[in-house]
Amino acid sequence: MTPAAEARDFLRSTHSGVLSTHSARFAGYSFGSIAPFVLDDAGNPLILISSIAEHTKNIAADPRVSLIAFDPASPDMQAGARLTLLGEARTADKQDGVLCERYLARFPGCTVFRYARFPVLQHRGAASALYRGLWQDTLDFRQGFPGGLMIRALQLVASASLIALIVLCLLWEGWLAPLRPGGSLLILKAVPLLLPLFGILRGRRYTYQWACMAILLYFTEGAVRAWSDDGLASVLAGIETALSLVFFLSTIFYARLTRQ
Question: What is the tally of structural domains in the chain?
Fold first, then answer.
């Protein structure tokens, strides 16, 4: 295992750290305190701080920070594994359901004030991850994390396929090819699809977990009616099957990549 991979695995294994910022009150001095953290999809530590905390004021004046991740269970803090990250603090989106759920899943007793995101960036031409006395190349250190782009893409695909499925159910059973002329009560099958819609749009992992199972009912209906129905109804059933499969796969992979 390379030092970068070892450092990455260590960062995944711990949630204890010391955050240090440049003091805005006492120029030239650093200010440090214990800061529990979790990782986002790209491997950036997420730390919960109050809007009136000293760190918040310091970061507003100078976003350059360091975070020391350590193992609190180590009997010898000097000999135990520890990792120092240098970067710039960024305020994360408080409305991001993935980040909120991830933090509260690890620290359920916390009241959410603000999330601060700490990307692992290059600093003054040097790599920004120091592990066991060696600076790790930033690209090598980051490549083991799945990254946020794939997560966002899966969320977009899941959201689009769910909305398309809702519209399809309404048009199919209401106007295009209902079981009875003028529409049928099967149009109500669009209602259960509204239940996970908010959670899917907000990126709530728990919603993705149960919705991927519920959608199998629509996949089954589409497959059966594609075989048994004729004409336009058969085509629409095939589209329902395809959309259900796309939604199922995107939610499965989303839940897998966002687990902590």
Answer: 2
Q: Cα dihedral sign for 119, 158, 110, 83?
A: negative
For residues 98 and 54, membership in a common domain is answered with yes
Same domain flag for 179 and 195? yes
User: Can you give the CATH number for the domain in which 18 is found?
Assistant: 2.30.110.10
Is-contact 11 69, C-beta < 8 A?
yes
Q: For residues 114 and 49, is the Cβ–Cβ distance under 8 A?
A: yes
d(CA 227, CA 207): 31
Print the domain residue range for 246.
Answer: 150-257
Query: Distance between CA 234 and CA 38 in Å, rounded?
Result: 48
Task: Give 152-190 pLDDT, tens digit per residue.
Answer: 899 999 999 999 999 999 999 999 999 888 778 889 999
Q: What is the pLDDT of residues 4-22, one digit of tens each?
A: 778 888 888 999 999 999 9
Question: Count of CB atoms within 10 A of residue 153's CB?
Answer: 13
Is residue 13 domain-shared with residue 91, that is, in the same domain?
A: yes
Taking only the tens place, the pLDDT of each residue in 52-106 is 889 989 988 998 999 999 999 888 877 788 888 888 888 877 667 777 777 777 8
pTM as predicted: 0.63
Q: Which of 123, 145, 167 is the last residue of a domain?
A: 145
Instruction: Name the residue among 194, 226, 223, 187 with its Cα closest to residue 211.
Output: 194
The CA distance from 5 to 86, in Å, is 18
